[in-house]
Amino acid sequence: MKSIMILFFLTVFGIFGFFNSFAEGVRNTIQVTITGVPNQKGKVAIGLYNREGSFPADENMLQGHTIRADAKEMVVMFTGLPDGEYAVAVIHDENNNEMLDKNMLGIPKEAYGFSNSAHGIIGPPSFQDAKITLSGNKTTKTVVHVE
Q1: Of 49, 73, 83, 129, whose CB count within 10 A is highest?
Q2: Residue 43's domain is classified under what CATH number?
Q3: How many domains is the chain built from?
Q4: Boundaries of domain holding 49
């Protein structure tokens, strides 16, 4: 009887442990298609953010990719993401100085864009306007048009 009880507890807790580890293992992918790159100079920087207050500051980026600007359309994948809310910012860094160049009035001189085609009135859009919600261990596609 004692061995049956031990077997019962091991089975029940083993099953719960399996389901917990399965739930923790849920991972999503964001496939970002970047369109509108005006030329093949420099590089394209793509940032992924997961917090309202961090968007779109470089120092608060969750993940980032930098690729050569060698086509008018490019695809970048962010993988292994847990369920949650994310936003994407893209900059076409034509002169490779690793920043978005602006004129004297603070208006960007290089192309940029955000997930959900979000635009800000003065400055970048809010995280809420650019957010992508991930859930269920799947791939979510978004197009970011830089201009």
Answers
A1: 49
A2: 2.60.40
A3: 1
A4: 27-145
16 has pLDDT over 60: no
- Report if residue 93 sits inside a domain: yes
Neighbours of 110 (CB within 10 A): 18
Distance in angstroms (rounded) separating the CA atoms of residues 40 and 105 = 26
pTM, full prediction: 0.81
Helix, strand or coil, per DSSP, at residue 46: strand
Three-state secondary structure call for residue 130 = helix
What pLDDT, on the 0 to 100 scale, is given for residue 25?
A: 66
AA identity, residue 13: F
Q: What is the pLDDT of residues 108-121, one digit of tens each?
A: 999 999 999 999 88
28 and 136 Cβ atoms separated by less than 8 Å: yes
